[in-house]
């Protein structure tokens, strides 16, 4: 831990504190706040976890949030589509198989790039991708792509118990709600979001 | 920023890296994982933000998560009940006024106390409080208590625009889902959670 601390400390004097959160260097700098598609794709690709929401079977249809890890592709093959590694031992996967309605909510706050802004401030960006949470066919090329993306970003997943029957799910996005400054949600269509091209540094091509 | 970095660096060698996240010292150490009520109350009182879920009016009943700040009381008057400062300019408050069903999901990950565990790992705790998201009567003692709690934890809120009509909401908890180790959710009733007493250091009295 102290080695990581020393590394972090050295980085501070070159890049500033905001670029060093939990020992990790951010690969890409924050896009301009008016470039809505770029900002949204940056927020999704830079984050490694969020809250995945489903309609609860056990709690009479309540909206049920759960902490999940995700990946939208390798750094140089980011797609904007969040993939998950879930087990039906957990209510989220069970809920989704019965009712696909879902959303994934991600905050900029854990990235450490919000300065002194409060987590609820519009200056600290937040995005909610709403759509259908569906199982990906385990024998498809998409499943292979998603598993590589997930295991690269979350190496621990490789060792999760085989007996727990983890499977790959994805969120088919139908609506995007993003606030990254004052003035309400940024206008952004799913097409604009998905068609945005990034290079491995998260910069527009 | 460099001063904060230096402060953090010095702290590292006394307390270890996990105790220093975004320049903030954690007030209380993590309770034993088998003390479910203590752990849950620690997780809620130490965190400053989470994802608040409601049933979306605009998105055909989809579960809609939103990043919010909250407080469950002053450090020495923690209640376990999360209070929020919301405006109906935002969909979450509008949704709640029409359908109270709601959940608040919080991760241990941003506290920096999960070591190297993945955010989805059961070793990195997660809690979902499900219940009814309701408006608190603005003229009540409870509203006064909640506003002090919110403004103390989130000083920026004091300056949020009066014209946006922010109001205090609370989650009336009906169910608790918490995972903080292997073996599935920890058995924990709402009564056990609410009746747990903490001192200002988050330690049982």
What is the compact description of this entry?
Chains A, B: This is Protein CREG1-like. 2 copies of one chain form a homodimer. The first copy, chain A, has 205 residues and is an alpha+beta fold.
What is the global morphology of chain A?
globular
Number of strands of chain A: 8
Query: From the alpha-carbon coordinates, what is the Rg of chain A to the nearest angstrom?
Result: 17 Å
Structural class, from secondary structure content of chain A? alpha+beta
Domain CREG-like beta-barrel (chains A, B): 31-194
Keywords (chains A, B): Glycoprotein, Secreted, Signal
Subcellular location (chains A, B): Secreted
Signal peptide (chains A, B): 1-23
Layout of secondary structure:
The structure is a homodimer of 205-residue chains.
Chain A: H1 2-15, E1 20-21, E2 24-25, H2 36-46, E3 49-55, E4 63-69, E5 83-86, H3 91-98, E6 101-107, E7 126-135, H4 141-153, E8 167-179, H5 190-195
Describe the overall structure.
The structure is a homodimer of 205-residue chains. With 205 residues, chain A is α+β, with helices and mostly antiparallel strands. Chain A has 2 domains: 1-26, no CATH class; 31-195, Pnp Oxidase, Chain A (Roll), CATH 2.30.110. Helices cover 25% and strands 25% of the residues of chain A. The first copy, chain A, is built from 5 helices and 8 strands; from the N terminus they run H-E-E-H-E-E-E-H-E-E-H-E-H. Chain A has helices at 2-15, 36-46, 91-98, 141-153, 190-195, and strands at 20-21, 24-25, 49-55, 63-69, 83-86, 101-107, 126-135, 167-179. Chain A has a 6-stranded antiparallel sheet with strand order 4-3-6-7-8-5. The termini of chain A are far apart. In chain A, 46% of the residues are buried. Residues 1-26 of chain A have low confidence and may be disordered. Chains A and B meet through helix 1, strand 3, strand 4, strand 6 and strand 7 of A and helix 1, strand 3, strand 4, strand 6 and strand 7 of B.
């Amino acid at each position: 831990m102290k080695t990581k601390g020393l590394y972090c400390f050295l980085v501070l004097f070159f890049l500033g504190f905001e670029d060093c959160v939990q020992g990790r260097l951010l690969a890409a700098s924050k896009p301009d706040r008016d470039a809505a598609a770029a900002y949204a794709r940056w927020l999704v690709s830079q984050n490694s976890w969020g809250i995945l929401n489903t309609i609860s079977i056990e709690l009479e249809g309540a909206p049920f949030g759960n902490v999940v890890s995700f990946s939208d592709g390798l750094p140089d093959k980011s797609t904007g589509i969040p993939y998950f590694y879930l087990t039906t031992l957990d209510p989220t996967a069970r809920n989704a198989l019965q009712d696909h309605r879902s959303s994934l909510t991600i905050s900029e706050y854990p990235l450490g790039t919000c300065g002194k802004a409060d987590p609820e401030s519009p200056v600290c960006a937040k995005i909610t991708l709403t759509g259908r949470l569906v199982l990906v066919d385990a024998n498809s090329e998409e499943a292979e792509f998603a598993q590589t993306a997930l295991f690269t970003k979350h190496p621990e997943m490789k060792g999760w118990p085989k007996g727990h029957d983890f499977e790959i799910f994805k969120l088919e996005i139908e609506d995007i709600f993003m606030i990254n400054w004052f003035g309400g949600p940024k206008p952004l269509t799913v097409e604009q979001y998905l068609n945005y091209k990034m290079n491995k540094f998260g910069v527009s091509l």
